[in-house]
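**Entry details**
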Amino acid sequence: MHTEKDEVFKEHYAKPSDFKFTSNVAGVFDDMVNRSVPFYEEIQRMMAELAADHARPDTYLYDLGCSTGTTMILMDQTVPANVRFKGIDDSAPMLEKCRTKLDRIGFSHPYELAVADLNSRVEVSNASVVVLCLTLQFVRPINRERLIKSIFDGLEKDGVVIIVEKILAEDSSFNREFINYYYEMKRRHHYSEMEIAQKREALENVLIPYKLSEDIALLRDAGFGHCEVFFKWYNFAGIIAKKL
């Protein structure tokens, strides 16, 4: 499938505005995330495998912050036929792109898409799997505890939440090194210095990363019994947590 190239920050802006998932971003998002997130395709494959092992018949699989539907499309190929999908995002343009992609590939599971802000109350019920792929980091810190608790309450016994996040180093002395390695990856993926700098500035007040230990504490405090890191690359991590 052809994807448009991400050139959102290629032009110089006197002061980049806070990053938003507009129609311009939705149009290039698949290219943006593939070039901006380390091992993105492998992370997606891993999440689809984890979902396959934990999705249960006659339950829901929620993708919170589903963006253009990449995660849903891969999980469509792995989870049981009688699982229903719910994709939620606060960006109508992203959901429009998502619906187009799902229709184009012939998505085989029943699904619903809804516009909702995860900073407000989001209802989760009869769920066996809930996914937050690069989503929790955009939820305001004051609202994260409530969101994780609502996910926990909406999961069935043995249900799981799968989280992928940009994170801070446990020891702050490594933060600068890890960020440098990350920017070097972006250069390898043909982003210019201006694009890197302008996107960093646009995300500064929008994307608020936690330490990995803080994310795990958030899950433990909500009631999750088992918690495991399934992916780690410098300042990115994937976590799976189970409700016992």
